[in-house]
Specification:
Radius of gyration: 20 Å
CATH class: Mainly Beta
Number of helices: 4
CATH architecture: Trefoil
Shape: globular
Signal peptide: 1-21
Strand content: 25-35%
Largest sheet: 14 strands, antiparallel
Bound molecules: 2-acetamido-2-deoxy-beta-D-glucopyranose
Keywords: Signal
Helix content: 10-25%
């Protein structure tokens, strides 16, 4: 009875807040094949989700706090849900799941800055990298108020938090751009300009192109004749 209760508690804890980076545990099936008894409940519970995620991401050396879920996209003007960030074989993540299951992610606190988070894809059907962030192509992107410049929302390699765009294989990226409010579940981006400044960073959604990206000034973006709506991301 006691064992059952502690297993339930351990499982519930795992569901509420997945702790990643635990060493890859041997499954009970593997242990039984070797004639060993099953894992104790806590170890079993810890192994459930992190092991599955660890196959797809960089191994980490010590545990960090992670929250699992999907990225829900809500319109700024009335808060209604537009959809979920997609998981698309051909095009990664930069739109909504008009067809198929959405992207599953875990939101993890970075080691060096406690107010910055990484978002890591855990069920990606596209090729790596598996961090969820911003990329500006071959030029280090600049966002500014009064300007219609933009940077892409895309899967990215891991880059350091609070750092200007990092050049990886010829393209500039920032992955650890997220802050996470655990009461509202909102995920808010902060692009860092090449000079280290922190511009207003608005998530924009162009429904006609099913395209998500970041702008510094949504009304300037609209002035150009291409229209997008400001949206917000929530972990759901
Ligand atoms: C998009 O994802 C949501 C949440 O999982 C799901 O309810 C919906 O059916 C998906 N949309 C499509 C078109 O598959
Ligand atoms: C989270 O959002 C709530 C409601 O907007 C706000 O009161 C609170 O200060 C936020 N927490 C953090 C850590 O930003
Ligand atoms: C930009 O255009 C979109 C689509 O027409 C509209 O929904 C949105 O309100 C506009 N936003 C601004 C700030 O002009």
């Amino acid at each position: 009875m006691l064992v059952k209760v502690s297993l339930l508690v351990a499982l519930a804890n795992t569901l509420v807040s997945v702790v990643s980076g635990s060493p890859v545990a041997e499954t009970n099936a593997q242990r039984m094949a070797r004639g060993l008894p099953p894992n104790p409940p806590s170890q079993f519970a810890r192994g459930v989700s992190p092991v599955w995620a660890a196959k797809r991401t960089e191994p980490s050396t010590r545990p960090s706090t992670c929250y699992p879920g999907k990225i829900e996209v809500r319109y700024d003007f009335d808060g209604h849900v537009a959809g979920y960030v997609r998981n698309w074989e051909n095009g990664g993540i930069s739109g909504l799941n008009f067809s198929g299951d959405p992207l599953e992610v875990k939101v993890c606190k970075t080691r060096s800055y406690t107010d910055r988070y990484d978002i890591i894809a855990t069920n990606a059907v596209f090729k790596p990298p598996y961090y969820v962030g911003a990329g500006s192509g071959t030029v280090a992107g600049i966002l500014a108020t009064g300007d219609r410049s933009s940077v892409g929302f895309s899967n990215t390699p891991q880059t350091p938090p609070n750092a200007p765009p990092t050049l990886v294989n010829g393209n500039y990226y920032e992955s650890a751009i997220w802050s996470y409010n655990s009461s509202t579940k909102e995920l808010s981006p902060q692009w860092i300009n090449p000079d280290g400044s922190k511009p207003s960073t608005v998530i924009a959604y162009d429904i006609r192109a099913n395209d998500l990206f970041f702008v510094g000034d949504i009304s300037q973006w609209n002035v150009s004749g291409s229209f997008a709506s400001a949206v917000h991301f929530y972990l759901a």
